[in-house]
Structure of dTDP-4-dehydrorhamnose reductase:
Amino acid sequence: MGQHELELWAGPECTVNRVGDAFGDQFERCGHTRRLEDLDLFAGLGIKAIRYPVLWERIAPERPDVCDWRWVDPRMHRLRELGIDVIAGLVHHGSGPAYTNLLDDEGFAPGLAEHARRVAERYDWVDRYTPVNEPLTTARFSALYGHWYPHACDERSFWRALLNQIDGVRLSMAAIRSVNPGAKLVQTDDLGRTFATGEVRGQAAFDNIRRWAGWDLLCGRVTLEHPLWDHIAAFGLAGRLDAIASAPCPPDVIGLNHYLTSDRFLDHRLHRYPPHLHGGNGRQHYADVEAIRVLEPAPPGLEGVLRETWARYGIPIAVTEVHNGCTREEQMRWIAEAWDTAARLRREGVDVRAITIWSLLGSCGWNTLLTARGLYESGVFDVSGDKPRATALAALMRGLPDGESRPPAAQGAGWWRRPIRLLYPTVHCPALREAHEHGEDAPPVSAPLLILGATGTLGQAFARACAHRNIAHVLTSRHEIDLCDPDSIARTLDQHAPWAVINAAGWVRVDEAEAEAHACHEANAEGAIRLGAAAGSRGIPTLNFSSDLVFDGRAAAPYVETDAPAPLGVYGQSKLDMEEGLASLPGRHLVIRTAAFFSPFDRHNFAVAVASTLARGECYRAARDLVVSPTYVPHLVDTALDLLIDGETGLWHLTNGTAVSWADFAMMIADKLHLQANLIQPVLAEDFDLRAPRPAFVPLATTRGAGLPPLDTAIAQFASSYMHGSVKENSEAA
């Protein structure tokens, strides 16, 4: 491997794909089209190279001879100024502009080559190209499964789409090299392995040959002796195969993309899996599931495909997409494991050149396979707010090349290394030799997360989430740490030396606070401030919770973080005093305002009260003149943990985003649980004879990020858990 060191590359998710007559552009959806300054953020990550799009669909959308370089020129020039090498992508999961498509045997490849020549002439300093990203994957999604344009669903179309893309790569590299003879091809594709039960082993064997087809074609290997030759030639494509084999274009670097979903398992026993996983090949019916979710031991994963690729081709490899759609610490664990795996294999002689952190700005719609707008998922930066916000992945990236220690939250084993990975009946299979040779090292013992509030809804929820997410934690009650006693606080912090503290303790009885103002203020404000001061002096971040009751309810729109508080009662004032006290302290303090908790995991919340009352056939009274934004506790806890791991500070509003009256909220719960909504009695708040004044309109909104999933989604998840008996006895008092 000579002088090569393992490099850190990166890339923003940049797909431009077509569904029907509509083009979807990830840069439009994540806002990168409007922010040149994103490139400076990328440079701050310490990356050596970036996979960056100079896409045919953007440059010449209407006519091949009419090119618009106005957007891409300043970005390419800025990347050059920043000293970041560009790996230029020309088509990324696309079918080309509207005047061509993947099944255009005469126009797609020559048209792409002409675009490639123009790019090479304009940016003659670019030395590395990916003319077509993931041609095999794109052919499957566009011409075999019909998800993307041209929406074909037959095998002949699949092979034509693949061959047209391979020809596009060959002709493009020839055109590029006519301008820049030293240009290198970095050819990417998704790579996994298919496992199967004996009854469908034939399909698995075919899949495991087909997965190499793109690289085999480019390397000139698909000749008469290749196991796919007869199969592809039978579709009338022998001449195409001959032409490719006679003028191959081997990659200079194989770009290997491997996700936790890349390894598959085919099982003829359909009854073991939900219907949405059932499929087939026209001859057999089988379930197609993620192998990581069913096989024991786990499949070889990224290490396995790296070894296989090196053994098959002996060509330098870059892992060109490393991304995991999950909670923040799991995203970090996946990145760290990929880096460590590549470094270890390099020591064994496998020529892995780089690890590419993908989805720099997150992505939109991959939960629908880009067939609809779908959900936004953050990446190294979260762009759901008014500007990009660096997540914990950014600091992790900067430290990888220098071997810096990983954040405590990232030091546990990822979910793919834990028993929770198994979602379906386990299928036992023999372990491959390397599974025995490379046992997992014991994870380092990391500093814990300290959680206050062992008997409360939030404290219990955080402990439950940490256990599920494999975050080391200590859950304490007031017997272990007394927020009225500075010595108790100091002793507990020094004993556990946590990396952060979550204060989920406090006074929760809003009406009783009116008669016990001192006790409420002591619990919610003074205690939290003492804790914050002690933690801040030790460099320990804190997470605290406030309420919508810091507002008076006289606004005409949902309250955001910058709106002026004006509490009506003692409880709201105690929370405001806490916010202001923490803001005046040194250190890193995150305060989350939230509202109207509901959860399937304890009995003491509004949603459970509605459900249990209606289930008994009794009426339930709910206020119709008080508007709030209900918050599903599991969603709140997961997002709050991500923000804490990201190192966020200051005020955040987190709710499920919908403004509803308590009566309307009750109706939504009844509807989702199929209970009698006519038993709900909408009444005025004054009918409850509440001791503490309640603001009439206090929904919360945020300017800092996307917030939590929609309320409909939250209620659906609550209903599912409730109907499966998740409710347990608990107390909200902490």
